[in-house]
Structure prediction request, 493 residues.
Amino acid sequence: MEAFGLFDHPRPAPYPFGPSTLADILVAEVAEHPDRLALIDGDRAWTWAELDDAVAAAASNIAVGQVVLWTEPNSAELVVALLATFRAGGIWMSTASAVPESVDVNARMSRLSQQRTKRDPFGVALVTFTSGTTGTPKSVAHSEHGLLAPGLVSIEVEPPAAGERIGTPLDLRIANIAILGPISAFLRGATFVVMHRRFAPELAADVATYGVTRLFAVPTMAFDMVESGDVDADHLDSLDRVILGGSGSDPTVLARFADRFGVRPTLSYGLSEAPTGVVRESLEDPIGSGRGHPLPHVDIVVVDPATGEEVPTGTEGEICIRAAQEGPWANCWTGTLGYLGEPERTAALFRDGLLHTGDLGRLDADGALSVSGRIGNLIVRGGKNIDPTTIETAARSAEYVADAVAVGIPDGRLGQIVGLAIEFEEGITFTDSDDGNPTGLDRLDLIEIAMTIEEQTEIPIGATMVVSRWPRNSMGKIDRAALIDAFGPESLL
Prediction:
């Protein structure tokens, strides 16, 4: 592993139940329920036996170590190719967007492919890319063993229901979505529904048409459903669980979703390196609380970012992950194998027996985690660290403001200045000039809002602008790098 810049994990303990390889993901259901539905894509459907046959046929055309890159949108064929790659011992390359030229993926994958001569559940089976929200995307490598964890853990946390149907309109070329979608569905013995449409009324209609019971989405989709007057609430009657990941959400929006559609959205916290979720929001807490308990296969440790020492309960620090130390899941989890071809980044990720997430949070006395931000998002102005969430919270409480994001804009003198991007509430018109706006707000009003926030937080605001649509990456997260680039000279205060 070290030859590829990866981490050589100690051999993990076996999972307490379920298959030990992705090659065997269909075995149990094919044996027990061969004629039940396993996969739906529009008006096409496959039983477990038919899906198994399709995967076997596709796998016969894939060599051990062969790299498979799928470039087309969501489809049953994508799902079949994914499972076939694992069955054949190939390597699935997971990306929904162009890889930056600075990431020499082809050379790395070619070397890796040549070295893989037999199926290995602990070797590289999938390479994906981080969303790049805070910098250059990293090529994250996972083993079959690591990819099995989220689906198997979900069985213990929420045992499968009879007739369960899992669906998501999110891009299945993204590794976390493939794991939460078809991989988890098949491990749970559920039917996976390939979904194509994200526009709120159409998404709701598809939920009804295919009887989806568990929906994976991002908070922007929940917001759109709540705000759209064209969504028929009856279309979501089949749902008993909506799990949201990818970015934060306003608790009032989540509450409105629950009131209107009769199902509470549940927030999750995870990352590509885990892979996917490691903390799920506690249903005992108020909706949208942001608190959640670690899933049973991991322990969460919060450390001082400067010293690496564990901090006291209730103290903010860097969120770190390790395998659960006790119980049936003890020492099963490994997380990623590291960043392919990037030994320095891999070494920085795994330190002192912990996977360092780069996220900030705190553990409460009951063991619940609250995520507060990201170390990489800190703004360093004149040598002083500024947490953007402090500014964003104040901005969201201001009149007319629907949402706000604070970023660090490069500055020759101070290193960075605070840039504040604001989205106004629906119906508020804005004119980016000082000449006045008889029907709404203008630049002077924007400056006044920024100055009020500055007074409240005692943090100087150096630039501000209005956005009508947030730049987002494929995971639904706000793309802070793109937002920084959008600030021009006219934004300076």
Notes: The CA atoms of residues 99 and 247 lie 22 Å apart.
